[in-house]
Design goal:
By secondary structure, the chain is of the alpha+beta class. It has eight helices and eleven strands. It folds into two domains: about 120 residues, Jelly Rolls (Sandwich); about 70 residues, Winged helix-like DNA-binding domain superfamily/Winged helix DNA-binding domain (Arc Repressor Mutant, subunit A), CATH 1.10.10.10. Helices cover about 40% and strands about 20% of the residues.
Length: about 230
């Protein structure tokens, strides 16, 4: 599931990942042979997006999918009442937009830059190289999207069948799986998340999420920081 924040993040000050580095970071353990690696680099042009720029619109049929190389992309859709609902915030080096590209159907959401961002454009030529010439890439891609689908099912189940505290726990674990940093010496993992995003994922009010966060902190199960939550297994 994608990932969200209530405040815009600035692009990283370090050099952005190359296409090859980004893809390898997306799928740990996947090694890229040198020849396909050179072809992928040439076939995945970079595109810069200023904050607020829409990359593709809801209802548009994309001719490519994308990898965030730097910055942050928000996936969101317009509800029937006209309000925008955020699906996730995509940060480097995650891929997005694959479903509409593969099916050739209009996208069910729009993608817009939260901050000044840079994405790699993966069109049909690059996709063929990735799938046909990179051993193990297709399996890694299938595993990645299977995990996203499983995460969405857990959230759907939680929204329909579980109580508030259980739904909150499922949403927090989902975000931790997607974006928490590696554990520090004490086992804490830093997670960038907001109460609004947790409330949306758990289908709870922000007031309820705030109460659950404070209770969990009092019990020592997490630590609250500005825009971040420290969690432990």
């Amino acid at each position: 599931m994608p990932p969200p924040s209530s405040s815009s993040s600035s692009s990283s000050s370090s050099s952005p990942l190359t296409a090859v580095q980004g893809l390898c970071a997306s799928f740990p353990g996947l090694a890229l042979p040198s020849a396909p690696g050179l072809r992928v680099e040439a076939l995945m042009p970079a595109r810069r997006l200023p904050a607020g720029r829409v990359l593709f619109a809801q209802g548009q049929t994309p001719t490519a999918f994308y990898m965030v190389e730097d910055g942050e992309i928000e996936a969101r859709f317009a509800a029937l009442d006209g309000r925008m609902s955020v699906l996730e915030h995509v940060r480097a080096p995650r891929l997005f937009g694959l479903a509409a590209f593969i099916t050739g159907k209009p996208s069910r959401y729009e993608a817009a830059a939260v901050s000044d961002s840079r994405v790699r454009v993966i069109g049909e030529p690059a996709y063929r190289v990735l799938m046909d010439d990179w051993p193990g890439f297709a399996r890694a891609l299938m595993r990645e999207f299977a995990e996203r689908f499983e995460g969405n099912l857990r959230l759907l189940e939680a929204a329909r069948h579980l109580g508030a505290e259980e739904r909150f726990g499922v949403a927090l674990r989902q975000l931790a799986e997607e974006r928490a940093a590696p554990p520090d010496a004490e086992g804490w993992r830093s997670l960038r998340a907001t109460q609004a995003e947790l409330a949306q994922l758990a289908h709870l009010s922000r007031q309820t999420v705030n109460q659950l966060l404070r209770a969990a902190q009092a019990e020592g199960r997490l630590r609250l920081r500005y825009g971040r939550i420290d969690v432990r297994p």
